[in-house]
Amino acid sequence: MSSVQKNSVPRQKQAKFQIEIIWVALAIAIFGGFALALHLSFLIGFNLSLGKGFAGLIQTHGHLQLIGWAGLFIIGISLHFIPRLSSVPISEFKPIKQILWLIGGGLLLRLVSHTVLPYLEGHVLFVPIDWLVATSGLIEWYGILIYLSLLIGTIWGIDDTSKRPGLLSVRPFFGMMVVGFFLYATVNMVLLIRMALNKNVVVNQGWNEFAIGVFTGMVLLPVAFAFSIRMFPLYLRLPAADWGVHRVAYLYLIGFGLQMLTSIPLNLGWVTHYLSDAGMLVRGSVILYVVWKLDVLTRVQEPWTVHRELQPSPDRRPTRPNIPDYGEFGRFERLVYAAYAWLVLGALAEMLIGGFGLFRYPLSIGSDAVRHIYLLGFITNLILGMAVRMIPGFIGKRQIASTKLVDATFWLANTAAVGRVLILLLPSGVFEVIPAIAVVVETAFGLSGILGLGAVVCLAVNLWKTAHVNHPKFS
Ligand code: HEM
After folding, report:
1. Band of the pLDDT at 423, cuts 50, 70, 90?
2. Which of 17, 68, 467, 474 is the most exposed place for a label (fewest CB within 10 A)?
3. Who contacts 143 (Cβ-Cβ below 8 Å, separation ≥6)?
4. 420 C-beta closer than 6 A to ligand 1
């Protein structure tokens, strides 16, 4: 019997939540992605010597953050949440464990081998280690393939889709995620193999940038929208999604596809620049529309609870204003609000770049700034916020261990994000007029890595204590 059960066969129980995936994601983030971020930002911010491994470290940092930090969180949550949304349970642990071993093992191999590789140039071990880096890409690719096949079974294994309107509306977003994950994993593997064949220490940067763009635009943002659309009404008492999510998803895809035309490192002609700029405007507008419809920053629409048939009795203990809990998960919503504020900033920045670009007036907002607005500002805040809200329930706990750590996470993550991108957003004229600002923003950049790492350590400690310590009931 396959591990994915169609809903026409007798109902199987969904495998319990695999918290191990979250531990591995946190370990890779702490000892890999964010540790490298600390190193890189410190060297750049405090003008220290970058060393010969620098370019390789950047690529390793980016890859570990995408697949290890954000990717593994998505994998862990989606393998638990999507089967419930579709009523097509994944009943066996085995494939989930395989995914974890393959992706976790591949990432560990990548971290170790790619970090030492530049220091082995000219050494007899260089070629074998170069091939170990390539092997990491192959192992991860296989793990991602198993994950995607499980997911496809649950999302597209429904016999009667009309009974699952909740899943149906966000399915295009999940479709993009499946394609994006596969594309990223494949390009990463091919690039690493080419790197080993050519005896290089870094992969082709053009295609690497393309792959990063695909993962951010086709996996991270769409899956964040899909989860937000389905979960926010429940966790943040927001309006139900009755606004043609399907069509918006396809428009997003069109905008993103156009935008990516200039990221393909092939000469496709001058017209792609116009199309790409137009794509940025379209995608940015769609993102703003999604944020508006979610009502997460505006809160001007009626929440779904206004229309529910059974209203709670008047003597029920009141929850926090606008939030359907008693504070037992800390002020997690601040991380979510911050995430969406960063998303709006990213969308506006891209719309400005696209709008001015159409008139052949390039703005000096670098792609690295926009990238970290999305990845650190939006995605990381969202993970930090939703993890403390959802994971306790997934593991049978009623509250998070420390609400103070949730607050600490909020401050650390957002100071890190400001420090990481501010230097890239301020016009260079500002530094000439007030040179002291340059010192402040460089220091903020230098410290952004340790602050980001601090935020993730707080989350890890909080989840670990939640899972392993019995706390007195929250009142
Ligand atoms: C405080 C936290 C962070 C710091 C200090 C940091 C720092 C850096 C630095 C210095 C670079 C190199 C920039 C350049 O090439 O000019 C970089 C690149 C990158 N970062 Fe981060 N980062 C952080 C968080 C994140 C997060 C959370 C993600 C993803 C979820 C991420 C993904 C990337 C990617 C994809 C690249 C490009 C890698 C490449 O070119 O191959 N970063 N980061």
Report:
1. confident
2. 474
3. 98, 99, 100, 101, 102, 103, 106
4. yes
Domain membership flag for residue 156: yes
How many CA within 13 A on the CB side of residue 158? 19
Residue 204 covered by a domain: yes
Ligand 1 pocket, mutate which of 372, 420, 441, 453 (most atoms under 8 A from CB) = 372
DSSP string, 186-225: HHHHHHHHHHHHTT-SS--HHHHHHHHHHIIIIIIHHHHH
Backbone angles phi, psi at 90, to 5 degrees: -100, 110
pLDDT at position 87 is 79
Phi and psi at 72, nearest 5°, equal: -65, -35
Exposed (0-12), middle (13-18) or buried (19+): which is 449, by Cβ within 10 Å? buried
Centre of ligand 1 from the C-alpha of residue 57, in Å: 10
Give the structural domain span for 108: 1-216
Q: What's 53's DSSP letter?
A: T
The identity of residue 432, as a single letter, is E
Residue with tokens 């198993």: 146
Q: How far apart are CA 62 and CA 34, in angstroms?
A: 10
pTM check: above 0.85:
yes
The count of domains in the chain is: 1
- Give φ, ψ of 224 to 5 degrees: -65, -40
Is the beta carbon of 169 within 6 A of some atom in ligand 1?
no
pLDDT of residue 3: 55
Within-domain flag for 196: yes
On whether residue 234 sits in a domain, the answer given is no
* CA separation for the pair 444, 422 (Å, rounded): 8
Tell me if 375 CB under 6 Å of ligand 1.
yes
Residue 4 dihedral angles phi and psi, to the nearest 5°: -100, 125
Indicate if ligand 1 lies below 6 Å from the C-beta of 208: yes
Q: What is the mean pLDDT of residues 317-326?
A: 86
How many whole angstroms from 204 Cα to the centroid of ligand 1? 17
Cross-strand partners of 90: 4
CA distance 185 to 15: 26
- Beta carbon of 373 within 6 Å of any ligand 1 atom: no
Convert the pLDDT of each residue in 204-256 to its tens digit: 999 999 999 999 999 999 999 999 999 999 999 998 888 889 999 999 999 99
Say how far apart CA 177 and CA 444 lie, in whole Å. Answer: 34
> What does the DSSP 8-state code read for residue 380?
I
* pLDDT tens figures, 133-154: 999 999 999 999 999 999 998 8
